[in-house]
Write a structure and sequence with these properties.
With about 475 residues, the chain is an alpha/beta fold. It has two domains: about 240 residues, Glycogen Phosphorylase B (Rossmann fold); about 190 residues, 3-Layer(aba) Sandwich (Rossmann fold). Helix content is about 45%, strand content about 20%. The strands form three sheets. A ten-stranded mixed sheet has the order 5-6-4-1-7-8-9-12-11-10. A six-stranded parallel sheet has the order 15-14-13-16-17-18, sandwiched between helices. It has a two-stranded antiparallel sheet with strand order 2-3. Strand 17, helix 15 and strand 18 form a beta-alpha-beta unit. It starts with a strand and ends with a helix. The C terminus is likely disordered.
């Protein structure tokens, strides 16, 4: 039996006016990707009830319910776990998003933040209880031969509880985030940073999206007492060996095939046929849109083009964790920077769109002449792969060197330092000024590098890392049946 666990479910429920719970696709990127994984495998899935609708469904269906998830719309058995507010709230609204996420991504100034107090210790105890309760529910849902796949940083400490109850269980923990170097990780409170490392090492496999994050994790782990390197990226702790691996994920082939990219008429009219630069992300400071807008404005100043053919920039943001003060302030700053550039240029050269509309995002990627992803740091940035697969104007890629995607796509991209606005402006001018033949060659190279990084390959590598035969995955079987080819 194979079971997936994540904090967020693939769908979230809201209560309608007549009191009925209505499902919709969850806004979280991890949940969306893992939904496609679950749909491929047809597995059980445990997640936390987040919305009022989720909690109502959890109460009405204590043993879970079958829901269609992912692009393949294959049903999986979803169990939503109601956690008491005194456990969940300190984890969700403080420890995970205001401490762990910020330290993992190095978004700290050290002058004023982070500062750890009794509130932090209390939140850590809640995090331990959170991890214990998820593990207990996973054990109730499964038999002794279960294999557990724990998704993302919030579930880093679930494995020790599973291992204590089932010493021989196969467990994989998959991080979708960046991982810092030891000097940054050492900022975490001692009791948390060591316990979290040891928690991850209770799994058989600790997986990251690129080699840089995996190597950083190994360096951090080797600073914890009782942890030793066992060759390569394998670590030993408590008599167990844990393989630390890089397992890249780029895009869901099935999702892209079943989506319909679209641009609203007003947006299409505004874009006209001038070069369009697209910056796509979420309302999260790591996505670095304010610097992108500043760099775009500087690039426009240097381009010798008639006024009517000057490039335009769309900043597309998915609203995400809007309860986090930094995210809310980030969204405001993006709007202010866009207004400043537009006023200086005397026209609407920059348009900001805040929406969870996936088809609109894909429509923008399809229309882009330059995809501009300048994240301060990013676990991977799947948009860099999706842009290669759906682009229809042979776009260029301007990519932060601190994205995991740079490890795989860097040779076909204009790599930039995310803090260097002048360099980013240079890269935009270069990308927008290339001749047709060079542009075509670079795009072909980008697409060739991105193409193998499919969801199916990512899922297969997860299973193989646990010693399981991936075999033909269900979606691959369906494609073979319909095409007549193996």
């Amino acid at each position: 039996m194979l079971i997936i666990a994540s904090k967020r479910a693939p769908v979230e429920f809201e209560i309608s006016s007549d009191g009925m719970p209505l499902p919709s696709v969850s806004p979280g990127g991890t949940a969306t990707v893992v939904a496609d994984q679950a749909a491929l495998l047809g597995v059980k899935w445990l997640a936390v009830a987040l919305t009022a609708g989720d909690k109502a469904v959890a109460h009405q269906h204590p043993d879970g319910l079958d829901v269609a998830v992912g692009s393949g719309q294959r049903a999986v058995h979803l169990k939503l776990l109601n956690l008491p507010p005194e456990v969940f709230d300190p984890v969700q609204y403080y420890f995970a998003n205001e401490i762990l996420w910020l330290v993992q991504h190095g978004i700290i100034d050290r002058w004023s933040r982070p500062t750890f107090t009794e509130k932090t210790r209390s939140a850590w105890r809640a995090y331990e209880e959170f991890s214990s309760m998820l593990a207990a529910e996973l054990l109730r849902m499964t038999t002794s031969d279960a294999t557990f796949i724990l998704q993302d940083f919030q579930l880093m400490n679930v494995a020790p509880y599973l291992r204590a109850a089932r010493p021989d269980a196969r467990i994989l923990w998959m991080s979708h985030s960046a991982w810092p170097q030891p000097e940054t990780w050492s900022v975490m409170p001692t009791y948390a940073r060591e316990a979290m490392i040891l928690g991850a090492l209770s799994a058989d496999v600790a997986a990251f999206l690129c080699t840089q994050w995996a190597e950083n994790f190994v360096m951090c782990a080797c600073g914890v007492g009782g942890v030793t390197a066992a060759g390569g990226l394998t670590l030993r702790s408590g008599g167990r060996a844990t393989r630390v691996v890089a397992n890249p994920l780029g895009y869901s082939e099935v999702a892209l095939e079943r989506r319909v990219p679209r641009l609203p008429g007003d947006l299409e009219a505004w874009a006209e046929d001038v070069p369009l630069v697209v910056h796509s992300g979420r309302t999260d400071p790591i996505k670095n849109a304010p610097r992108a807008i500043e760099a775009f404005g500087a690039a426009v100043d240097r381009l010798s083009r008639p006024a009517g053919s000057q490039p335009r920039l769309v900043v597309k943001m998915n609203p995400n964790r809007t309860y986090v003060p930094e995210n809310e302030e980030y969204a405001r700053e993006v709007a202010v920077r866009a207004l400043d550039v537009n006023m200086r240029l005397g026209r609407e050269a920059v348009r900001v769109i805040v929406s969870n509309d996936v088809d609109l995002t894909l429509g923008l990627l399809s229309r882009a002449d330059v995809l501009f992803l300048n994240s301060v740091v990013d676990g991977m940035n799947l948009t860099a792969f999706e842009g290669a697969m759906v682009g229809r104007r042979e776009p260029a890629l301007v990519l932060s060197e601190r994205c995991g995607a740079a490890e795989y796509l860097g040779s076909a991209a204009d790599l930039v330092n995310p803090f260097d606005v002048a360099q980013q402006a240079d890269a935009l001018v270069t990308a927008l000024s290339r001749g047709e033949s060079e542009r075509r060659l670079r795009y072909a190279s980008w697409r060739k590098l991105a193409e193998p990084m499919t969801l199916q390959a990512w899922v297969g590598r997860q299973l193989e890392s646990l010693g399981m035969s991936a075999g033909p995955l269900p979606e691959q079987e369906a494609q073979a049946d319909s095409s007549g080819r193996p």
